[in-house]
Write a structure and sequence with these properties.
Elements lengths: L4 E11 L7 E6 L20 E4 L13 H5 L5 E3 L7 E3 L1 H4 L6 H5 L5 E4 L1 E4 H11 L8 E6 L6 H13 L5 E4 L5 H8 L4 E5 L5 H8 L4 H11 L6 E8 L7 H13 L4 E6 L5 H6 L14 H13 L3 E4 L6
Helix pairs in contact: 4-5, 9-11
Length: about 325
């Protein structure tokens, strides 16, 4: 039988903040949402992408010209600007499939985000890491949106369950039910992101409405699924940080028998990745979420008898 193959843009071991225990996280490329605050923009598209770090470039310090000499498409050029002497034209680089510049770069200034791997290759990494997991730990799947590659994800999960691994996922749940439920049957712990309770506002910021997301959550909570579900919401200033939105989300949770939420403070850690992709980070000028805002939201959820975890302070 032919092995499934998928696009993986990162694998991180020793993760202790994305599910119970110590986990190995597999990040799959592709996402139907396009959140402008995203910390993993390299995972939005379902294709390998070129990232260029000016800080690592040795064009001036070591007079390196490797990328200039190997690029066959004219995507790399000298600018004459002493502050930014080398420029990558991402309109050209975005169409490249061979990435000669990244292969030639000895300093990882130009690098490829996204590598095609087989189920077997991923499983070999998970088996290697298994001895470092504790009794609650195991493989976790994130992105991007891991369910954007359903056949690949399901094949890995099937292999994980055959070897009795505890599985976790962080998902937007923005997929068709016939994709969502067969995958969730193989998941022991899940974070599902809820960005906003108003579908129009959700669509304006993320590119999609929230009906499919809420419908999947509602159906999952009413099913025989035995896993643990915690909803997640990144707190974004001027978007979903109001008590009005919290009230609607709390009502939805109680209606569906859900009593755990993890609110995440906004941070700008993804800024450099946006820049490396040749894009301006829309939230570059926004400040981290104020403690007072997080405390107010947490207090409200607790008053509603909903466990509210802030940031990494999740009780597993």
């Amino acid at each position: 039988m032919k092995e499934e193959k998928g696009l993986v843009f990162d694998i991180q071991g020793f993760s202790v903040h994305d599910g119970p225990g110590c986990r190995t996280l597999v990040f799959l490329s592709g996402c139907p949402l396009h959140c402008p605050w995203c910390a993993n923009p390299e995972g939005m598209k379902k294709r390998p992408q070129l990232l260029f770090s000016r800080q690592k470039c040795r064009y001036e310090k070591s007079h390196c010209r490797r990328c200039l000499s190997v690029c066959p498409h004219g995507g790399v050029r000298q600018t004459g600007d002493p502050d930014n002497p080398l420029e990558f034209d991402h309109a050209i680089c975005g169409k490249c499939t061979t990435f000669e510049c990244a292969k030639a770069c000895a300093h990882e200034a130009a690098r490829i985000s996204g590598q095609y791997r087989t189920t077997g290759e991923v499983m070999r990494i998970l088996r290697r890491d298994r001895e470092y997991w504790d009794s609650q730990g195991g493989p976790g799947f994130s992105g991007g949106e891991p369910m954007a590659q359903p056949a690949f994800l399901k094949s890995i999960l099937t292999a994980c369950k055959e070897e009795e691994m505890n599985t976790s996922i962080e998902t937007t749940a923005y997929v068709e039910p016939d994709i969502f439920f067969p995958i969730m049957e193989k998941i022991d712990f899940a974070f599902i992101d809820v960005k906003h309770m108003d579908s129009d506002r959700h669509a304006k910021m993320t590119g999609v409405g929230n009906e499919r997301i809420l419908s999947n959550i509602e159906a999952l909570s009413g099913s025989s699924w035995k896993g643990r579900l915690i909803l997640r919401m990144p707190v974004i200033e001027g978007f979903n940080d109001s008590l009005e939105n919290a009230e609607k989300l709390a009502a939805f949770m109680k209606k569906n028998g859900l009593f755990e939420i993890n609110i995440l403070p906004f941070h700008r850690l993804g800024t450099s990745k946006w820049e490396q992709l040749g894009k301006k980070y829309p939230y570059a000028e926004y400040l981290p979420t104020e403690e007072a805002v997080l405390e107010k939201l947490q207090e409200y959820y607790l008053d509603q008898r909903i466990a509210c975890y802030v940031g990494d302070d999740v009780v597993y």
